[in-house]
Amino acid sequence: MTTATATPGALRGVVESPWVGFVLRRLRRLLISLLVLVTAAFFMIHLIPGDPVRASLGATAPQELVEARREALGLNDPIWQQYVDYLRNLVTGDWGSSMTTDVDVSQIIADRLPATVEIAAYAFVLIMLVSVPVGVLMAALTRGGRGRRTELAFTSSSVVIAAIPDFLLAVGLVYVFGVSLGWVPVAGKSTVESYLLPVLALAIGPTAVLSRLVRVEMLTVLDADYIRTARAKRLPARWIYLRHALPNAVTTTLTVGGLLLGGLVAGTVLVENVLAWPGLGSTIVSSILSKDYPVVQGIVLVYGVGVLVINLVVDVALALLDPRSTIRES
Amino acid sequence: MQVFTGVERPEGLSRWRAGGGRKWAAGLGRWGQALRSPLGATAATLLGLVLLLAILGPILWGDRADAIDTSSLSQGSSSAHWLGTDSLGRDIFYRVLVATRLSVALALLATAIGVATGVLLGAAPWLLGRRVGRFAVATINVAVAFPALLLVLFFAVIFGVGIRGAVLAVGLGMAPYYARVTSTLVAGVSGRDYIAAARIAGLGRMRILLRHILPNIGEPLIVNATLGAGGALLAFAGLSFLGLGVQAPSYDWGLLLNEGLNGIYVSPAGALAPGVTIVLAGLAFNLAGEVVAKKVGLRTANVRTASAYGPVPAAAVDEARPASDKDTAPVLAVEDLHVTVTGPAGPVTPVRGVSFTIGRGEAVGLVGESGSGKSLTALAVAQLIEAPGRVDARRLEFQGTDLLHTRGRAKGIGRLLGTSLGVVFQDPTTSLNPTMRIGRQLGEVVRRHLGKSRGEARARAVDRLRAARVPAPERRAHQYPHEFSGGMRQRAMIAMAMMGDPALIVADEPTTALDVTVQRQVLRLLEEIRAQKQVAVLLISHDITVVGQVCDRVMVMYAGRVVEDLPSSELRTEARHPYTRALLAAVPGMAADRDRPLTIIPGRPVDPAHFPPGCAFADRCPLADDHCRAAHPPLATDGAGRRVACWHAGEPLPVVTEDNVGVGEAS
């Protein structure tokens, strides 16, 4: 895109620009979602039938210990008092401590989060790098009823691959690469090779979904009037595909890509458990099983915030790439 | 996941009222039809198999699956145990089969909970009024933003580990999705007339919801639920795999997978088998959902075009025509142009034998009803017909350059057409790329074909915008098409057509999509450009008066052929073809008697798939006789260069009476 030349009109443009309203709207939505998230995380513990502390410590724990722990957690205060305390503690960074190991929840998260973010980020990059070119190529090859067999092979294989959930893919990958071929370690995080399985397990399904979508979207865009206009300028095919068609196909691609990225966050939970990857996912499951509620609460918050941030980034990226999307909503 | 919300039904008709018992028959018929396609048959077979296994599995093999064989603990696959045994020596193959019932039943139960909760939530705005409803919608919107698995984990914490907790967690985790689907569907249906009628009749909201709204959104809901059941199955398998769902000694596929993964080195099949069954069962539900969705849901506009054509007949070779001098040669010479495109029932040729030339700086109008082939002629001239469409001609020359045999010269032809032939399309709203700034869109031609720098291209774009009377061209060049008004967009299109100093501008109905006031301005602009720059113009229009005002010459097309060609100045006085005269008569003058019906041409335009053997206009022509219907009249040129194709050219038309005016189709 051409860079904006600084003209006197540019400043006025900023004030009038739909961007201000757009940013305000998005911020409001983010705040509301955050509030809902935090409230849900707070009430999660209070909605557990029976006494969560008793459940956590086990039926054999002495009543005094349970009482002391309840007092320490503030569970005997009035509910609104607990809510306010919870909010204040969240803001000050006091996320409580594990009921089993006494380690600070914030410390646990700080230890475990990077491993999860790493595989999710690598997987996302891989998805985008593969699915966009594949989708565009497939659109070019199957346009106007051409390449029927290619289309059939591509569509059916991508449908089947997309139907396999990521944790099953992980099991399959463990079998192929770990057990049969013995190329990579089947579990844990150690060498560079150990990233291969979790990243592939997370990326393969979404890649199949997204490349199919990019193809369909490109086919629609290629039938648009402005593509005919571009052809009337006798631009080379590659130029038309990449500069005229692709930016118009990117809106849907990115929207779905964002959803997939949110889905990746969830996918990490299962994939980490299959591959014993030391991230948040394996921690939250073990914490749920050991009824270590403060840890679960903290990790749920982190996942939730992660999803919200991803949604925000996708929205902003969309607005930057497709100037109409900001206008459309106002 | 896709949301299918397509309920297309006559506006005023409730499904409930539409036809009692027949409703289900019709519904089943469509579903049955859906299942007869190859994909549908696969889905039905797979789903039937899964359900059959779910019912029969435990009855047939329940004992064998639980039989403990201490002599073969954790064995690999053998003839006795196809998939090996688990740590207690139980046969994994039978366990996988038996586990079908629990896996499927729990998934269906969770789906039922999810759908029921979702429908209640989604219908809340309808049941509880606007204020509570808005709160419900806002909550749904927030909840939908989170991946279902996170919601499932959240509820799993609340309801605890185990079957009951997992079913509730999966069900409630899916509920926001169904709530979103329901609220969208309800919003779509609640505005319909039959709902209003029911409300006026005094029915309660709950009653209307149950009797009128739900039946009308039932199909898409069932489709989504079927798709969702597949998702629930996978989610449940995930939970059990994590140890949060089914607990031993009960077992489902997820738990078997968990056990199998521990022994993957000993017995890979034990880990892979439950995985494969999970995928197959999930696929069964997904496929069934998609097949049904395709049938009852959104009808995807999947227009397939036949790609196979007979061998292309070699275009008649041009008899060694000497490269004519560019200054005296016509800008455009077309002889015997045929355009073939793919129709619904195979290839049709809507343009069949069009010949004309356009001189330097000449403005020629091409007039006809929709379907006459005028736009295809324009696209063919501009070389914009795409495969599988095909252009054949005896001669097609632009600026003395042959456009038919372009092999090996594609780049040169591209530059010639890109710079010397400008095209203005009908709808400037859709014909400009919405994601590209106007200046950059205009500059592309000179960047590509004349090798100009970005700055030079931009300067020229601003210059051409100014020439096209776009105010503040510097600022406008930096804007996107959506920031332009309709008229301004068309000016930008015209500016784009002028970027390379064209010799010919092809304008395909350039004013049809514009307001009447703006139409005049755009036409005047085209006239000015032509006068100043000596640009030839080929103006396509259905409006014979517009063409008469702007052009030197008017060609009238009917059914893929030119039927008359004469100077605009003689249009009112010298038109000889009955069709041309009918077109002229159909134009209401300022003095038209408003009490009389508008004059129209009776009958319909000819379908390009069924051209009659004789004159195509014969069926609508007051002068037609048997000869007209038998032989098609040639396009004859008179001494003054006017052309007409009619056996009765210039004969007086019968007087129009009340009887033969009025009932036909307007053009």
Automatic annotation (TrEMBL), chain A:
GO terms under biological process: transmembrane transport
Main localisation: membrane
GO CC term, one of those recorded: plasma membrane
Residue ranges occupied by any ABC transmembrane type-1 domain in the UniProt entry: 113-314
Membrane association type: Multi-pass membrane protein
UniProt keyword annotation of ATP-binding present: no
Transmembrane portions of the chain: 30-48, 119-140, 152-175, 195-214, 248-271, 299-321
SUPFAM superfamilies per the UniProt record, alphabetical: MetI-like
Compartmental location: Cell membrane
Keywords: Cell membrane, Membrane, Transmembrane, Transmembrane helix, Transport
Pfam families documented for this protein: BPD_transp_1, BPD_transp_1_N
Listed PANTHER family: DIPEPTIDE TRANSPORT SYSTEM PERMEASE PROTEIN DPPB-RELATED (PTHR43163)
Family designation: Belongs to the binding-protein-dependent transport system permease family.
Protein name as annotated: ABC transporter permease
Species of origin: Jiangella ureilytica
UniProtKB/TrEMBL annotation, chain B:
Molecular functions per Gene Ontology: ATP binding; ATP hydrolysis activity
GO cellular component: a single term: plasma membrane
Protein topology in the membrane: Multi-pass membrane protein; Peripheral membrane protein
Family: Belongs to the ABC transporter superfamily.
Signal peptide: none
Predominant localisation class: membrane
Pfam families reported for this sequence: ABC_tran (PF00005), BPD_transp_1 (PF00528), oligo_HPY (PF08352)
Record InterPro entries: AAA+_ATPase (IPR003593), ABC_Ni/Peptide_Import (IPR050388), ABC_transporter-like_ATP-bd (IPR003439), ABC_transporter-like_CS (IPR017871), MetI-like (IPR000515), MetI-like_sf (IPR035906), Oligopep_ABC_C (IPR013563), P-loop_NTPase (IPR027417)
Record-level GO BP terms: peptide transport; transmembrane transport
Name the UniProt record assigns to this protein: Dipeptide/oligopeptide/nickel ABC transporter permease/ATP-binding protein
SUPFAM superfamilies: MetI-like, P-loop containing nucleoside triphosphate hydrolases
TM helices/strands, residue ranges: 39-61, 104-128, 135-161, 221-244, 264-289
Keywords assigned by UniProt, alphabetized: ATP-binding, Cell membrane, Membrane, Nucleotide-binding, Transmembrane, Transmembrane helix, Transport
Domain of life, source organism: Bacteria
Domain ABC transmembrane type-1 stretches: 96-289
Native organism: Jiangella ureilytica
